[in-house]
Amino acid sequence: MSESANPRLGALVKLAATVVVAGALVAAMLLPWVGGPGLVARNSASLLDALPVELTDKTPNGNTTVLAADGQVITEFYENNRTPVAPDQISDVMKQAIVDIEDSRFYEHRGLDVEGTTRALMKNLAAGEVLEGGSTLTQQLVKQTLVETAETQEERDAALDETVGRKLREARLALALEEEYSKDEILTRYLNIAYFGRGAYGIQAAAQEYFSMNAVDLQLPQAAVLAGLVQTPRNNPVDYPELAQQRRDQVLARMHQLGHITDQELADVTASPIPVVQGGNPPNGCANATIGGFFCDYLYTYLTGTLGLSPTEINNGGWTIQTTLRPDMQAAGDQAVLNSVPMGDSLAAVYTAVEPGTGKVLAMSANRKYGCDRTADAACESVNLNVVASKGSGSTYKVFTAAAALDAGYGINYRLTTSDPYYSRVFKKNGGTTRGEPYGPIQNVGTLPTNLTMHDALARSSNTYFIAMEDTLGSIRGPASMAQRMGLRSLDDKVDDIIEGEMASFTLGPFETSPLYLASAYSTLAAEGTQCDPTPVVAILDRNGEPVTDDEGRPVVRDDNCTPAAIRPAVANTLADALTADVQSNIGTGTRANVPGHDIAGKTGTSQDRDSVAFVGFLPEYTASVMIFNPKEKQDAGSYGGGRPAQIWHDAMEPILAQGPTREFPPADPAVAAGTKGAGMVPAPPRPQRTESRDDSDDRGRPPSSSSSQPPSSPSAPSQPAPPPETPAAPPAETGGAPTD
């Protein structure tokens, strides 16, 4: 006898022994409950008590599908690729093929079939190979369900254990299932749970994988192949076509023997090769998303973090997740980013859009590919730079100082006169307000008037004005707290230190900032003071189209992420009106973002040494941030915030705004605009004395990083980032002489 025959014979001997022993024990132990032809249950109450909850669900849940706002499939989440289908979504010939080869007496027995099992055993022994299974379809359904729903390895091992005890339990559960469900339901559940090879679980996934068709459209040539795979899924027609064809012909012979196909059908199909039209598995996870990979990553983190859903629930829930992603905005953002910064460049360019008043995240673009292997492609990135706080966003923080000033009664035309360079009258270089040298020197980018209103200081992005405004307010608490009220959540773990340390650099935005939360904060202005935490999802529905609920019966997705009047609407409207000058006036630093015919407000930002540059623009309908930076090291971004970031914003939003008209901002509130405070004159304090033994600045006017600059009187004072560098002699060539930031 050949060596290859030994394992096969061993398997048959094992099958024979197991069936004989199990059959005897089943007959003995089930005799009090059953009797007559086919083992019809007399009293199934005790059997039904044994049914685990996994077996009382009518169908496996299958893949979770993620949809964009327009219904486009973004990706799916699954452990086992499965799309359950209803009985009428499976072709009749497919049902017949699986019954004929696996359990030809399926419609006669009640879960156990001693006659059929004995006949299969004899036929298999005579053939020297397994041609028919030794268990009924119902028993196989029990076993596979318990295996797939096992939560521990111990439970899985118990479901696979080749012992008489396990087979007895399987038999009892099979009897109970037959009492509870119709034959068509049991057959459908079996076809939905069976494994067909190449990652395809269930008949619909298998039909798609091998033939690119739906289960309802399967004909005899395909059905015979799939019916043969449940016992030998490895021998599939893609990887092992000859073995698959042999098994197909066995199925066809059995169907012919039972009178379910004609001589001609048998001859025609067996004479033909398997008609494979490979479809492949659907995308799985965010690395395989069809669009918006970084959005998908944010969604998954939101599901598991904010909503508290487990990966197992997500991957096996069979849910439909309706997201907020707009494919048109995502595609426009992707193209706009790549227009300015090449894919995989050392500089990351990220574009993030949200909807004011709802918090819906509309797009997340970057010149990176999400989730792929960085060793194979330098453009691959697993860190979501749209969400994490990597670098500062510069003068975009001046808006928080302006909002705090308006809220405190300083009107939009509050005028300050400052020197250039300017040294703080209140705050110290190393933090605090009591002891040490003044914070400074602060200088502007380009030559700016020394006497400005708040309105013009925002448009021109005057550094000296906003340090002086912090002096006027007397504390950093107002601006930092305003940023939090507006939704800058990436500041949450720093804000106490900033406030307690009275860090005057706050208004210059040196702190690591999330592009998502920067856009979210500005959207509070666009929404007339309503602050909404970002959300990527509008609904999660179960297989029946009902909202998925938590343990208390409430939908896991609730419309409770917004806080009306987080800041006064009058303040928000006045500031939004003022910020239109940054984009739409000839003195603004963000004019490259302007799209004629639309009311657009915004603010530019540039960190020290142009290590990071930013622009945030908004309308009543949309808010989007753009940041460019090297996430791994310091690198000159090559422009100011009014350069490439403003251009990316323009390129991303122009095709969206071309779709139709947009609303105008409400007018500035007259009372807030006028304010209750008079104009101020801020003289420049004397430049600090410098000696050879204590040089507190380097050759560019920045405080040194050495701890020797810490005032002896406050050893625990937090060290604040350095003020901006000296002003360049002229704006960069790319700005065309326009104001810069």
Structure notes:
It contains 25 helices and 20 strands. It has 741 residues and is an alpha+beta fold. The strands form 7 sheets. A 5-stranded antiparallel beta sheet has the order 9-8-19-18-17, with helices on both faces. α17 packs across α20. The longest helix has 26 residues.
pLDDT under 50 segments (min length 5)?
Answer: 1-5, 28-48, 683-719, 723-739
CATH superfamily of the largest domain: DD-peptidase/beta-lactamase superfamily
Secondary structure: number of strands: 20
How does the overall form come out from the CA principal axes? elongated
Q: How many separate helices?
A: 25
- What would you say the CATH architecture of the largest domain is? 3-Layer(aba) Sandwich
Class by SSE composition? alpha+beta
Give a brief description:
By secondary structure, this protein is α+β, with helices and mostly antiparallel strands. About 35% of the residues lie in helices and about 10% in strands.
Topology:
Blueprint: H1 5-30, E1 34-35, E2 40-41, H2 45-49, H3 53-56, E3 64-67, E4 73-77, E5 81-82, H4 92-102, H5 114-127, H6 137-148, H7 153-160, H8 164-180, H9 183-193, E6 200-201, H10 203-211, H11 220-229, H12 241-257, H13 263-270, H14 293-304, H15 311-316, E7 320-323, H16 327-340, E8 348-354, E9 361-366, E10 369-370, E11 380-381, H17 398-407, E12 415-417, E13 451-453, H18 454-460, H19 463-473, H20 477-486, H21 495-500, H22 515-526, E14 531-532, E15 537-541, E16 562-563, H23 569-584, E17 601-606, E18 612-618, E19 623-629, H24 644-657, H25 670-674, E20 680-681
Parallel strand pairs: 3-7, 5-6, 10-11, 12-20
Antiparallel strand pairs: 1-2, 3-4, 7-15, 8-9, 8-19, 12-13, 14-16, 17-18, 18-19
Helix pairs in contact: 1-5, 1-8, 4-11, 4-12, 6-7, 6-8, 6-9, 11-12, 12-13, 16-24, 17-19, 17-20, 17-23, 18-23, 20-22
Family: In the N-terminal section; belongs to the glycosyltransferase 51 family. In the C-terminal section; belongs to the transpeptidase family.
Keywords: Carboxypeptidase, Cell shape, Cell wall biogenesis/degradation, Glycosyltransferase, Hydrolase, Membrane, Multifunctional enzyme, Peptidoglycan synthesis, Protease, Transferase, Transmembrane, Transmembrane helix
Biased composition (Low complexity): 732-741
